[in-house]
Amino acid sequence: MWAWFTSSEAANLGQFVGGIGVLVAVAAAIVAYRQLVVTPQSHAKEIWKDYLRLCIEYPDLASGEITAESPEYKRYEWFVAFMLDACDELLQYVEDDGGWLNAIDANLGYHKAYLATARTDAYLCQWSPKVRDRIKKLFES
Length: 141
Fold this sequence. Notes:
By secondary structure, the protein is mainly α. 76% of the residues lie in helices and 0% in strands.
């Protein structure tokens, strides 16, 4: 028989390989955990991306030029609600780097006419004080 290792060398090699296996398993578990964990910031940015996809898909709604007489008005109301949710998520979880507030304010501005009619406490209470403050600022300028 071919005996490359003595029994004690084989036992040491087995322990070494077993130790490496444990390290590989721990590393794999860490990588898997990091891939599964979604940070609030990444969630907020994903919602904003979804909103931007809607803007591309429905530019007529994104423009804010829908009137109450339009057959698309109900859809427009839901569009604005989705935008406000996206703004809410961003304002809660993403630190402003100078660009996020500008993006939020610009998008609120597109819908200023609608927000002027929908600015009731019953409607706006659905969103955080940060969103309500951005809307208030929109009408102060």
